[in-house]
Amino acid sequence: MSELTNDNAPEKEPSNTEKPATKKIGNLRMVWERAVNYPKQIAFAAIALFVAAMATLAIPWGFKSIVDEGFASGGGDIAPYFQILLVIVAILAVATALRFYFVSWLGERVVADIRLAVQRNLLRLAPGFFEENRPSEIASRMTSDTAIIEQVVGTTVSVALRNIIIGIGGIIFLFTLAPTLTAGLLLGIPIVILPIVFIGRKLTNVSRFSQDRVADVGAMVSETLGAMKIVQAFGQETREHERFGSAVESTFDTAKRRIRLRAALTAVIIALVFTGITLLMWRGAIGVADGSISGGTIAAFVLTGGLVAGAFGALTEVYGDLLRAAGAAGRLAELLSEEPGIAAPASPIALPEPPRGQISFDNVTFAYPTRTDTAALKNFSLKVTPGETVAVVGPSGAGKSTLFQLAQRFYDPQGGSVRIDGVALPSADPADIRERMALVPQDTVLFAASARDNLRYGKWDATDEEIWAAARAANAEKFLAELPEGLDSFMGEAGTRLSGGQRQRVAIARALLRQTPILLLDEATSALDAESEKLVQDALDRLMRERTTLVIAHRLATIRSADRIIVMDEGQIVEQGDHDSLITKNGLYAKLAELQFNGVEQSKTAIAI
Ligand SMILES: Nc1ncnc2c1ncn2[C@@H]1O[C@H](COP(=O)(O)OP(=O)(O)OP(=O)(O)O)[C@@H](O)[C@H]1O
Fold first, then answer.
1. What is the ipTM of this complex?
2. Any stretches that span the bilayer, and where are they (predicted)?
3. Of all protein residues, whose CA lies closest to atom 18 belonging to ligand 1?
4. I want to staple 111 with a disulfide (CB 3.0 to 4.6 A). Which of 150, 188, 284, 365 is the partner?
């Protein structure tokens, strides 16, 4: 009954979002399928649960024996009856603890397994999936939905089973004690339970509303505090106080409704429960007076009746909890069954050994899945020969980064083909393709981990010597050596403990360490000071040497050292050649170069050259 009156009960999903119940309850199968992987724990939990439920029912029986055999027999030896009761209590305590341990263990284990399976599947999915499904929404499925399932496996199911056993066992016991009284009790239970359930539901709704109002007050406080200077500078103190006042009053009004309901519920519970008990005792007393019922029977009857009524009360909550968990399981099952848009074929072709480092785009046409009406690449063809450095330049949105996305097979083009070392990407395993490439992205991605782990991210078996060699080549050795704990130093969330230029050099060292034949390099456009720029440039030059490099180039030095420059616009190559010949052509490249290099300050992110 306490669950019904708990106004801090966890929030329930609004019923209008719930799909048909039969369909939803079926979703719980995926939870059950995982739970049965642990038959030992299920067996222990079931035994402990059964023993605990039986011990609970034995307590009224113990009282009956004490009253009838002990007290009523006129001061005989009552010790054995109390000893039996103590043993029952001990069994109840141990069995309850064991039941709690095993069902909670199962709940946590099932949730851990679901989280692992979902994450394993998410890691297989192509980037397109994460563009269509918000990461924050997926994260909430991984945390709050799994928590709901944990509650069901770890609590609801055992509450349900325990109360079914206590309910049925209790009724049988009651019938053996006093059949007529039991029939009366069974009629009385719904009269007691239904109003409590009804008011309890209302109370839950009002409580939720009340919590929302408190959240409003919290939001308003932090807004005003955050904007205190503006409030005072604009002389809005009185208005802010009034605005806050109305939010506080509205919270108080809602709280008053909640308090009234709770007061009414308390009165109803006390009135109904104690009236019921009084009526039973009354009826029982008549029975005792005419000798048809013993005093112990009345005591046992009242205790068991309370247990049975409590069991029915708890069971009214179970179905709602199961539905909620079924909704959560359904949402997680969607993530589990999502098939990757990009996957290895049944029998992938092995890439040629040794790797050559050749990339070719043949007549590629591609539009992103979320923007099917605009082609990011149109009939695009490019052959990069082994060891060649090709600089890609062009205005923002020309399709430069898209080349990288397709080369790594994050998407499949709608027309034409992309090949690595002569093998069309869909015929090979994407993992083999990516194994041959190292990427230095424009925005360096560092993890909240040590410098060592960030550096060897693409090659976990790298030794410290190899890591330092890569750091040296990336001009990152000096600042890494100066970190308080060297390679063990923590980089902070997203590498916030490093400067922009240092982060880039870590990314370059990471790519170097992989020693791949192909390098995909998206030069950062962020403004670096002259010294960092020089250090990064030197590191890049070293990285590009002896590798096939496709570089989205923003620096004149990179462009000059490239074997070939291709100029892209609107998904196509509009010009190509070397720097001097392109300048002579006086086309798009010459225009971009003039903006960039002839002293006209412009946004580097707008014109990528
Ligand atoms: N994930 C995506 N979903 C939908 N459209 C995209 C996506 N990424 C890029 N595009 C679009 O595809 C086109 C080419 O984008 P791309 O990122 O290849 O340009 P870019 O030349 O690299 O530009 P920048 O120099 O600004 O990075 C643009 O019109 C862009 O809006």
1. 0.95
2. 42-61, 81-102, 152-175, 181-200, 263-282, 294-315
3. 399
4. 150
